[in-house]
Amino acid sequence: MKLSSREAEGYFAKPDASRTGLLIYGGDAMRVALKRQQVIAALLGPNGEEEMRLARMAGGDLRKDPAQLMDAIKAVGFFPGPRVAFVEDCPELSAPAVLAALEDWEPGDAQVVVTAGQLKPTSKLRKAFETHPNAYAVGVYDNPPSRAEIERMLAQAGIRDVSPEPMSLLADLARDLGPGDFAQLLEKLALYKLNDSAPLGLEDIAACAPRSTEAGLDDLLNAVAEGKLASVDPLLRRLQSQGTNATGLCIAAARHFRTLYACATDPGGPGQGINRLRPPVYGQRRDRILGQAQAWDARRLENALTVLTDTDLALRSAGRSAPQMPLVERAMIRLAMLARPR
Fold first, then answer.
1. Do 196 and 224 share a domain, yes or no?
2. pLDDT (average), residues 132-138
3. Are 196 and 272 within 8 A, CB to CB?
4. Alpha-carbon distance 118 to 126, whole Å?
5. Quick one: 314 and 188 in the same domain?
6. What is the pLDDT of residue 211?
7. Vertex 9, ends 202 and 74: CA angle to 5°?
8. Is 193 in the same domain as 237?
9. Are β-strands 54-58 and 84-88 bridged in parallel, bridged antiparallel, or unpaired?
10. CA separation for the pair 116, 181 (Å, rounded)
11. What tens digit of pLDDT does each residue of 248-293 get?
């Protein structure tokens, strides 16, 4: 049977131990792995692996030794409780072994949990689970976690007192970060709030959120937006030595100045405009962006965005002849000069 995304979320939290099996497939291996971890932990409990109720095998090995899956399903464990035969990253060539195991499965056997990459609707493996009367197939797509899923992950990490503003920030971070990085963030938050009964605050998230790998880039953009002309060239040289390319610099600068433009042109002023930014900014970065938005007016910001658009087009032009980094350097100098008070 095929489970929709909404149905799958409930099933992953409370799987049915009497089912024959479950197929989890998708293009993002990390998302698939996280769902697999969740459902196996819910099936076996916290001590399932220690009690040897989990048999793990690589999907590629089933082509050479298809009997190992059947042996794992039929094996009798030393400890009572549900058992799982887990087939990791199963290719289509190993489908016959999985199909044979599904056909011979009987009540009391270990449940078959299979993970795979992106599968076409015509895939034998996918069709076998979707048409099986006692098994499920779930496609995991590259969507950010829902609010309910974030709440479940927080509760699992031991964090339960979360007000709307921190929850909104976590939802924004879940969209920006990969699934593995977001899971690590929640683990860090759980350790950070250990023995701390106070509600989760924005400052707690700021303390644990991943530091930007673009710290040097932020320094450059701040220098440009604040008119610190003398700092532009040294920062550009440092970024270039680190391997930052010209196109990436231009895209980041355009994103930064669009943020300033959104704040500066808000009907309620920059103070209200910065509150409407998504994802929100906080801490020292918020103060800095607000100061920059107040220093620039809409007309100069429009000129700055025009400069960056022209530079981006020049960088992407098929017939370009000028070196790329000098084009960006010239644009940054022009912006820094625009930032200076007249």
1. no
2. 94
3. no
4. 10
5. no
6. 57
7. 130
8. no
9. parallel
10. 21
11. 888 889 989 999 999 989 888 888 888 888 777 777 778 888 889 8
Amino acid identity of residue 216, one-letter, is G
Residue range 219-246, pLDDT digits in tens:
888 889 988 888 888 888 878 777 778 8
Are residue 9 and residue 67 in the same domain, yes or no? yes
Q: Are strands 111-116 and 84-88 parallel, antiparallel or unpaired?
A: parallel
Alpha-carbon gap, residue 75 to 205, rounded angstroms: 46
Q: What is the identity of the amino acid at 59?
A: G
Residue 220 · residue 236 · CB < 8 Å: yes
Please state whether beta strands 21-25 and 54-58 pair in parallel, antiparallel, or not at all (unpaired).
unpaired
Closest by CA position to 292, among listed 244, 221, 233, 239: 221
pLDDT at position 213, please?
44
Integer Cα distance of 180 and 153 in angstroms: 12
Asked if residues 250 and 308 have their Cβ atoms less than 8 Å apart, the reply is yes
Q: Could you read off the pLDDT of 12-53 as tens digits, one per residue?
A: 889 998 999 999 998 888 889 989 999 999 999 888 888 889
State the angle between helix axes of 29-44 and 179-192 in degrees (0 to 180), rounded to the nearest 10: 50
Q: What is the DSSP string of 108-133?
A: TSPEEEEEES---TT-HHHHHHHH-T
What percent of the chain is helix, strand and coil (3-state, nearest 5)?
A: 60, 10, 35
- Mean pLDDT, residues 318-334: 77
Strand ranges (E), the chain:
21-25, 54-58, 84-88, 111-116, 135-139
Q: Where in the sequence is the domain holding 167, given as residue range(s)?
A: 147-208
What is the pLDDT of the chain when averaged over all its residues?
86
